[in-house]
Amino acid sequence: MNSDTYKTIVSASHGSYKEKGSRFISIAIPVSHPDEIKPIIDNIRKENHDARHHCFAYVIGHDRLTWRLNDDGEPSGTAGRPILGQINSLNLTNILIVVSRYFGGTLLGVSGLINAYRAAAASALGNAEQVEKTIREYYEITFPYISMNDVMRVLKEENIGQSAQVFDTECSILINFRASIKDRVLKRISRIDGLNYRYIETY
């Protein structure tokens, strides 16, 4: 991968695993913010209300720094961690994996649980379509109308995305571009007479 790209999944995918009567039903879901997690898990609990455990792990952000795991009553380290391990093994982000366990009456032991949750997570990921996305920087630029031609030249030459355009005596545009060219773009637009820029977000 390039320094300004990350890998995630396109859409939700399902998987499963069986071990000594226990069934492990898994789902991998693309997410973009931690606030999305609880409603998704609550919905899965309702749909699989007969399952004894709903264990999960997620990783969010292009830098992969936002993450969490949960064993939901299973012995510590036997569920959430192996699920997270499968996400990390593929270097994925913006993804949630939930594994719901229907208990089959036979205890699997620590190693058996680790293997089962790992296999269930891997099953969902194996059915998922992966995609590489570009990390983009978003800025708002403001400038006088007389500088319009200079601005448009840079936007075209650098293949910069545009939205929320306001063209008047004083103009403004929301622009976005690949993170890897940030320094070059900011240097070029800062040379334009009367132009000011404001950082919005990186996504």
Please outline the helices and strands.
Layout: E1 5-9, E2 13-19, E3 22-30, H1 37-47, E4 53-60, E5 66-70, H2 80-89, E6 95-102, H3 109-126, E7 130-134, E8 136-144, H4 148-157, E9 161-166, E10 170-178, H5 182-190, E11 196-202
Antiparallel strand pairs: 1-7, 2-3, 3-6, 4-5, 4-6, 8-10, 8-11, 9-10
Helix pairs in contact: 2-3
Give structural attributes:
203 residues, alpha+beta, Ribosomal Protein S5, domain 2, Alpha-Beta Plaits, 2 domains, 5-stranded antiparallel beta sheet, 4-stranded antiparallel beta sheet, 5 helices
Description:
Strands 2-3-6-4-5 form a 5-stranded antiparallel β-sheet, with helices on both faces. The chain has a 4-stranded antiparallel β-sheet with strand order 9-10-8-11. It has helices spanning about 35-45, 80-90, 110-125, 150-155, 180-190; strands at about 5-10, 15-20, 20-30, 55-60, 65-70, 95-100, 130-135, 135-145, 160-165, 170-180, 195-200. The radius of gyration is 23 Å and the shape is elongated. The chain is an alpha+beta fold and about 200 residues long. The protein starts with a strand and ends with a strand. Helices cover about 30% and strands about 40% of the residues. The protein is built from 5 helices and 11 strands; from the N terminus they run βββαββαβαββαββαβ.
